[in-house]
Specification:
Layout: E1 2-10, H1 17-28, E2 39-46, H2 50-61, E3 67-73
Antiparallel strand pairs: 1-2, 1-3
Length: 74
């Protein structure tokens, strides 16, 4: 079995409402923060190869229109 870490982020120019809300909350609490970006991270243990993991991203885990993903073998 192989472990993969998959990070999914919004593409540049796509509104990240969760990141923006977190930024606003941090500023309200008095923290000096200039930017917050949200992402999802999945750790998958599988007998599949990296090509199949990429297929998982394309078919289910990420929306290729507004998101990009990064796969790292652990």
């Amino acid at each position: 079995m192989t472990k993969f870490k998959i990070e999914i982020t919004y593409k540049s120019g796509v509104l990240d409402s969760e990141g923006d809300a977190t930024l606003g909350a941090l500023k309200t609490l008095g923290f000096h923060v200039s930017s917050v970006k949200s992402s999802k991270v999945y750790t998958i243990e599988t007998s599949e190869d990296a090509k199949k993991v990429e297929e998982m991203c394309k078919k289910l885990l990420a929306n290729p229109i507004i998101q990009e993903y990064f796969i790292k073998k652990l």
